[in-house]
Amino acid sequence: MKNNTYVYTSTLSSKHQVTIPTKVRELLGAEPGDQVVFVYGENQEVTLKVRKKDSLLSLFGSMPPKREQEEMNWEDIRKEAREQWLASKQKKEDERCTF
């Protein structure tokens, strides 16, 4: 059985960043917006994985935790969302105001 191991290198920048070599990005199918997952394992080996931006797991943490209060009905949810939207819109208008 033939061992298909390839070695690609990248240099750590002063900001502790690396560029993933093109061939590795292609092999992983990585695209802009995808998350790169580093899995530290045995023998101090790190496995690189890609979590696609459209995957369900990519949404983890994007919503606040569930409230510890009584359940809201649909009308209350809509009302709260509208109030937040209006407050956000007003804040943007206030930031544009220069007088």
Structure description:
- This protein has helices at residues 22-28, 74-96, and strands at 35-40, 46-51.
- The protein is of the alpha+beta class and 99 residues long.
- It has a two-stranded antiparallel ribbon with strand order 1-2.
- A hairpin with a 5-residue loop joins β1 and β2.
- The longest helix is centred in the C-terminal third of the chain and has 23 residues, at 74-96.
- The protein is elongated, with a radius of gyration of 23 Å.
- The relative contact order is 0.08.
- The model has no long low-confidence stretch (mean pLDDT 82).
**Number of extended strands:** 2
Specify the structural class: alpha+beta
Share of helix among residues?
25-40%
Specify the overall morphology.
elongated
Taking all residues together, what is the mean pLDDT? 82
Q: Compute the gyration radius: what is it?
A: 23 Å
Separate helix tally: 2
Biggest β-sheet strands, sense, barrel: 2 strands, antiparallel
Write the layout of secondary structure elements.
Blueprint: H1 22-28, E1 35-40, E2 46-51, H2 74-96
Antiparallel strand pairs: 1-2
Q: What's this, in brief?
A:
The protein has 99 residues and is α+β, with helices and mostly antiparallel strands. 30% of the residues lie in helices and 12% in strands.
